[in-house]
Every structure is written in C-alpha cells, then in structure tokens.
Write a structure and sequence with these properties.
Length: 118
C-alpha cells in the first residue's frame, strides 16, 4: 500500500539545524512532485517547499528561502528537507506530500513534529 513516512523531527534551539526525511513506497515515486508542508497550532497548513518529479525545479515559501533546502533521491524513493537557522516560528508538524505530475493521485504522510525553542 502507499506509504509516506517522515522522520527526523525533534527539539532544536533557535539557530540550529534539522534534517527531515520522507520515505515513499507503494507508488511510482519518480512520477510525483514532492512537497513539504507544515502546520503550526491554530494555523492553516502551509507549503514549505516542493520539488518536481525529476528534481529539476524547486520552490520555497518566502519565510524559508535561504534557510531550507529540499532534495530528492529517486533511486531511494526519498525526499529530504534540510532546515538551517531555525526560528521559533518554524515550530510545526511537518508533512510530506506526493502529487502525480499529471494531477490526480495525491498522498500524505503522518507528519513529524519540529519544535524550535530554547
């Protein structure tokens, strides 16, 4: 069955770094745009970064540009989010999302908590 499993979340001090991973299985991963979303308490889920199916194009929310980097490994069915210079406002549950490049099938992971606090 389809699975997106995030890992790498945790507690980090402001200015620190975390690396999130998402392992995909059960679908043709290389045909899917991969996106990281996040949702903070009391706020709507928002796009953080996405990467096209072949990895040739990326897109970032203004709030994370220059600090976060999305990447993927189609041989391993993995997508990553490297987060540097973390701020308290980056605290949220981070979700991995897959969407077929032609539209249609979409999948969500269960999320991983990231807390930035001193």
């Amino acid at each position: 069955q389809v699975q997106l499993v995030e890992s790498g979340g945790g507690l980090v001090q402001p200015g620190g770094s975390l690396s999130l991973s998402c392992a995909a299985s059960g679908f043709t991963y290389s045909s899917y745009t991969m996106t990281w979303y996040r949702q903070a308490p009391g706020k709507q889920r928002e796009l953080v970064a996405d990467i096209t199916s072949a990895g040739g194009s990326t897109n970032y929310a203004d709030s994370v540009k220059g600090r976060f980097t999305i990447s993927r490994d189609n041989a391993k069915n993995m997508v990553y989010l490297q987060m540097n210079s973390l701020k308290p406002e980056d605290t949220a549950v981070y979700y991995c999302h897959a969407a077929h490049w032609r539209g249609g099938a979409k999948y969500w992971g269960q999320g991983t908590q990231v807390t930035v606090s001193s």
